[in-house]
Write a structure and sequence with these properties.
By secondary structure, this protein is of the alpha/beta class. It has 13 helices and ten strands. Helix 2 crosses helix 3. The longest helix is centred in the middle third of the chain and has 28 residues.
Length: 398
């Protein structure tokens, strides 16, 4: 009973996301670390593998690592894979010292009057789309000046960490803003976030060590793969891994518009600038990351891909693997039954956890306050009510 109460409390947790490396980047539609932690603690043991086939910003992987579990995550977005990798890559105290000295050495080099190499590369110019206006160019120039200095850091994990700090500062300066702050304000935030994130990286190492896991650089206990969950059962890099005890994930929400890969600046202008900062490629529209346009007829493409993804996932499960998902639906009346039908076709049966349901349908539902995604909708939008689903392999699959 204590486990159920703890899990219910975590499901309904409404405090801001924080702790460890969770604040490295505000990835859209992330679930709370408290939820991930409670599920992992309730249904796995240290040394087990936790798998997130739609890892997004890596919340599941961070909590698994902190709790002494191995973790694997996949995502088709190179931005998501970059963020999840940085959030789960240990930084030593030596790394932290190198990064701090590098940051102090920037000094006056971030002055906007300093010249910088023009971005002639077509891909780079594409990624800077909609941030070259009179109000945004000081932020773009600041980003460019910092990026020019990153390669002077000696190790890739240090360079990736600083890119993530810059991502966070630039997101603060540009995303969902009508008024863009001054360049000096962003520089101040950059240094502030750098210190906060170095502390968070150390907290993750200490948490993992407290669980008895060695966190030496080079020891791989977390694997972030930039690939689709479809066909993951044939992934060579998982060939020698144990089968996961837990699948903990939050797939794209059916029919709910979430802008996973872009920022919105000055109203509704979209920019792929996050990919520029992360040194990742983006050439895809929103439907690529959400399994089809939300206006597609009966979401056929979405459900087809969900079926294929979870069929692949079923082929790497243990007999007792538990699948836990947090989802929202634009129109739950027909989209939820269809989702459950597709899960059944993929080889899974829905289960209920005793004494945990809080609605007439026997499931756990939660309200997400003030969720508005990237639209002018406020209040109870399609993504404002989420449900937690539990599945195991169907007897016929076993």
């Amino acid at each position: 009973m204590e486990v159920q109460l703890k899990l219910l409390e975590a499901i309904h947790w409404k405090n801001p996301v924080g702790g460890l490396t969770h604040e490295f980047y505000r990835y859209p539609a992330r679930f709370s670390p408290q939820f991930a932690r409670a599920v992992i603690e309730s249904f796995t043991s240290p040394g087990d593998i936790v798998f997130d086939p739609f890892m997004g910003g890596g919340t599941t992987l961070v909590e698994a690592r902190a709790l002494g579990r191995h973790a694997v995550g996949t995502d088709i977005s190179s931005l998501a894979a970059f963020i999840a990798k940085v959030k789960t890559t240990p930084l030593t105290r030596t790394d932290a010292g190198v990064v701090r000295r590098w940051a102090r050495s920037l000094g006056n080099q971030l002055n906007l009057n300093h010249s910088s190499n023009p971005c002639a590369d077509i891909s780079t110019r594409y990624h800077q789309r909609n941030i070259c206006s009179k109000s945004t160019w000081p932020i773009r120039k600041t980003i460019h000046l910092i990026l020019e200095k990153i390669d002077t850091l000696p190790k890739m994990r240090q360079r990736d960490f600083v890119r993530c700090v810059l991502l966070r500062a630039a997101q603060w300066a540009l995303d969902c803003r009508e008024d863009v702050p001054a360049a000096h304000e962003m520089r101040a935030r950059f240094y502030e976030f750098l210190e906060q994130m170095l502390i968070g990286a150390q907290e993750l190492i200490m948490a993992a060590r407290e669980k008895g896991k060695t966190d030496q650089i080079g020891k791989i206990s977390t694997l972030c793969l930039c690939r689709s969950a479809i066909g993951v059962d044939t992934e060579p890099r998982l060939k020698h891994c144990k089968r996961p005890a837990l699948i903990l994930t939050s797939p794209p929400y059916p029919g709910v518009h979430v802008l996973y890969h872009r920022w919105q600046v000055l109203g509704r202008k979209e920019t792929p600038a996050p990919f520029w900062i992360a040194n990742s490629e983006d050439g895809c529209g929103a439907s690529f990351y959400t399994m089809g346009d939300r206006k597609q007829q009966r979401l056929k493409s979405y459900y087809k891909q969900i079926h294929e993804a979870f069929y692949s996932v079923s082929r790497i499960c243990r007999r007792d693997t538990l699948v836990v998902q947090m989802l929202a639906f634009a129109e739950p009346s027909w989209q939820l039954p269809e989702y459950l039908r597709v899960m059944s076709l993929a080889g899974f049966s829905e289960i209920t956890i005793e004494n945990m349901m809080n609605s007439a349908d026997g499931r756990i539902w939660r309200r997400v306050p003030n969720r508005k995604w990237y639209a002018d909708h406020k209040g109870l939008t399609g993504g404002s009510t989420e449900v937690v689903l539990f599945h195991k392999l169907s007897p016929k699959v076993l």
